[in-house]
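Bench notes, afternoon.
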Amino acid sequence: MIRDIIELFKQDVWKNNTILVQILGLCPTLAVTTTAVTALGLALTTTMVLAVSNVMISLCRKIIIPEVRIPSYILIISTLVAVVEILMQTFMFTVYESMGIFISLIVTNCIIISHAEAYAMRHGPFMSLLDALFVGLGYTSILILVGSVREAVGFGTIFHGLNKLFGEYFADKYITVLPGDKTLIFAILPPGAFIAIGLLIALRNSISRS
């Protein structure tokens, strides 16, 4: 069991990382990673939906008819996303506004649907939960890296606005890395995201081959 968990961790976080290897979920990654905070918000939201949906689909896997399995996944995931949207509108409205339509688009996120099909339908709830958490860890790590780089170059800060997620105590808990007149607006535009992700893919491939 321990060996299986370790191997699953390696596969989900490194060997088959959803962004760096499978190249899934790029649309929200490109759009929402303009800052580390919005990247973290999307990553945590996606991970939560993935974890709960994986467990629910695993529990229902023996009663889901194969012919309607995809609509079943979408029904479960869309219900969870609707709940998340309501909670974010209530408690984290500023973050919700910054993510815009991409919260709703979690329903069609290839990462969630692919793991429902490839893993949750074939394994028990515990391993399906671990799969979701490990995938979420890999996804979150890359989003934060991309968001931090883009924010640092484009705005000169890292994790500015953390209070939007965790309360007013974190209002001034951010890192300043560049003065305002030394930043590059290019970094927070879509090409900046493509370059940041491309560099991370190149770094990951270089490490894997060494």
